[in-house]
Amino acid sequence: MTEQELRSRILFAALETFGKEGFFEAKMLTIAKLAKISKSTLYAMFPSKEDLYTEMMKFTFSLFLSNIQHQINQNHSFEETLQAITKTHLQNTWKQRHRSGMYLQLNHKHEEAMDALMAFIEEYIAVIQQFFEKHGIENADMKARLYTGMLDSFRNEIFMDPTFNEARLEEIQNQIDQIVINGF
Prior knowledge:
Structural class: mainly alpha
Strand content: under 5%
Shape: elongated
Largest sheet: none
CATH class: Mainly Alpha
Low-confidence stretches: none
Mean pLDDT: 90
CATH architecture: Orthogonal Bundle
CATH topology: Tetracycline Repressor, domain 2
């Protein structure tokens, strides 16, 4: 197994563990067992739980941004691409709802994790801004911030409301798309 394959296996195990247990309750031993490696191997690659958490965040952010960029690169119309981005964002949040502990317990005292989160947000906004600029949307930076903010504003509802369902998810998706398509 290559180092990259081992790293990916560890990061997926971390995603699962932090997702189920949250940052504070997650144990490095649990992650090592799930990744089918020794605890010493885990610590050799990630010296602390904070370091592993930060790398796991960067890994998931990278996967998400790759998916968004893939949607943009499909060369569909503005409306079709926007709908695909909106759906990707909201579906990603919907699929992560069982991992809410991972998102809601972000260790704000760990500067590297917060820096990674802020870098992701800015990179995501930049990708959307470029997409908007490509399609002649005026004030693309501000509108990219508004659009991503609208999408993210539903995270707590998706995570916390036990009655939230896919019909509500679709309703939100349609409303956001219509605001951007007709209101910008």
